[in-house]
Amino acid sequence: MIRFRFSIILIFSCLLSLRGNDQGYEIKIKINGLADKQVILGHYLSKSMYPDDTIKLDSKGYGVFKNSRKLPAGMYVMFIRSDRYFDVIIGDDQTFTLETDTVDFVSTMHVKGSPDNEIFLDFQKYMVALRNKNDSLMPLIRKENNPKIKEQLTVKIKQLGDERKNKILTIQKLNPDLFVSTFLMTTLDVEVPDPPKDEKGHVIDSTWQYYYYRSHYFDNFDLSDPRLLRTPLYEDKLMTYINKVVPQIPDSLILHSDFLIEKARHDSDTYRF
User: Fold this and answer.
1) pLDDT, block means (10 residues), the chain with 273 residues
2) Rounded distance between C-alpha atoms, residue 168 and residue 4, angstroms
3) Among 32, 66, 94, 124, who pairs with 25 as Cys (CB 3.0-4.6 Å)?
4) Residues 100 and 57 sit within 8 Å (Cβ to Cβ)
5) 87 phi and psi, to 5 degrees?
6) CA-CA distance, 64 to 75, in Å (whole number)?
7) How many CB atoms lie within 10 A of CB 25?
8) CA–CA separation, 233 vs 221, rounded Å?
9) Could you give the CA distance from residue 97 to residue 94 in angstroms, rounded to a whole number?
10) Cα 179 vs. chain centroid, distance in angstroms?
11) What's CA 39's distance to the chain center, in Å?
């Protein structure tokens, strides 16, 4: 559930919103099945969502978020209530239209004027289909007793993961300047190669893969990118590194905390966070 925090942190988030230029934003929305209701547009920061704008839809479910100042790029939420909301990408194109239905926000959504959201919507629908395939295979694996068949099903699960990775890499290759590409790339795990072996095929260093993983952990995640700060991923990525990747001894924690701070130093918002 999204948490609303109306505190001093809200002041910080409001200051973030004022850092945009004066081109402004105009987001027209139509939510079928939702008449005369309030909708909040807010951005993520850590595990919480902070409101940026509020409108009331008319009797046909239509409304417009509009302001003379541009929103900082990031992952935003169209919030109706704690169990009724959907995500949108705010990138460079901040004049766009979206229409959806309360029956299912994602499957019924149509977007015009925002390449970021058109790609993001397509990816969300793709992921629904991929999850359905995965969910249909998991019960078969659990109840299968034949090792060969079980292995074949496991291979199919892995292939689904490879398909997802290739989909993201293709999006990034075709749209390198869009924030949606940056966001999706951050969801990819680091691929760790096999460790080096001697001429007899024995692993030379049993810790090699760990050190490789640790040194490449942030390959797809730029800690100094303030757009990622306004997503639900930033804190998890950071704390997983500190709590699970780095050895839990003072010298290591200090060393890697300094490393993280230096990585984030290029932007004042990420540095403060």
Assistant:
1) 45 45 85 94 89 95 96 95 91 95 94 96 96 92 88 92 96 96 95 92 93 96 95 94 96 95 93 93
2) 31
3) 94
4) no
5) -90, 150
6) 18
7) 20
8) 10
9) 9
10) 10
11) 22
SS (H, E, C) the chain: CCEECCCHHHHHHHHHHCCCCCCCEEEEEEEECCCCCEEEEEEEECCEEEEEEEEECCCCCEEEEEECCCCCCEEEEEEEECCEEEEEEECCCCEEEEEEECCCCCCCCEEECCHHHHHHHHHHHHHHHHHHHHHHHHHHHHHCCCHHHHHHHHHHHHHHHHHHHHHHHHHHHHCCCCHHHHHHHCCCCCCCCCCCECCCCCECCCCHHHHHHHHHCCCCCCCCCHHHHCCCCHHHHHHHHHHHHCCCCHHHHHHHHHHHHHHHCCCHHHHHC
Q: pTM of the prediction?
A: 0.85
CA distances to 101, 172, 192 from 115, in Å: 21, 13, 32
Q: One-letter amino acid identity for 230?
A: R
Task: Report the alpha-carbon distance of residue 131 to residue 137 in Å, rounded.
Answer: 10
pLDDT value of residue 8: 40
Nearest to 92 by CA among 23, 12, 162, 166: 23
Nearest to 89 by CA among 47, 130, 123: 123
Cβ–Cβ under 8 Å, residues 217 and 245: yes
Q: For residue 251, give both structure tokens.
A: 């010298």
Cα-based distances in Å from 75 to 42, 50, 91, 124, 153: 9, 11, 9, 14, 35
